[in-house]
Predict the 3D structure of the following.
Amino acid sequence: MAYFRFMKKIAQTALLVILSTIISFAQLANGSSAYEISANDINNNGYSLTAAMAGGKSACIDFMATWCGPCWSFHNTQILKNVHNNLSALTTVVMIEGDFATNTNCLYGASGCTGKGTQGNWVAGVPYPIIDLTSSNGGSVMNDYNVNYYPTLYVISPDFRVWEIKNRSYDEYYNWIVHSFSLNASAQVTHSTCGDNGRVDLNPTGGYATLKYKWSNGATTQAITVSSPAASGNYT
């Protein structure tokens, strides 16, 4: 019995460690509210996320570190450069170096770089803003966006909500920016004549892949029928 209790305690401890690890590396939940980012870029130009998104634009944020191999691999795909060049009317792109221990020189290459080092020249050929966060200007940004690993890639919808990029492909960015963020709907209402035959038809536009429906009355179909006077009122 003592052995059983001992093993049970080990199992419980291991579970707590696993859960703590999962929680500590969790990114912001999809749909979370975005936060303002206000800092100078490496050219000492002021940058504001909300200002960059003015006019109904979305945003693409690349949280990276100069020493990060996967960040360098993603950078060299030039996906975000292509997003910037092709979709600038709809979105804005920014790269944010989030390791406070590295200095700005690391973004340009090995010369004068301090900290964990660099993979190369991150600045060459980049047409969008690059921000080098420091402990004095970056703590709140890193905490707000819960950046626990690099690269952390977010898209922010025009209504200022955060979504994480998973596949890290141009198509994924395109589908978020061009299709998903344009999702909208109009409703055609047929009023009830006898108290039991009202109908609401939802007509969506935009969106990507399979669309699903969830009405406030529990229905999961595109259109709903009001079957009794007690069910009349507002539906969402």
About this structure: The helical segments are 2-24, 49-52, 69-77, 79-87, 139-144, 170-179.
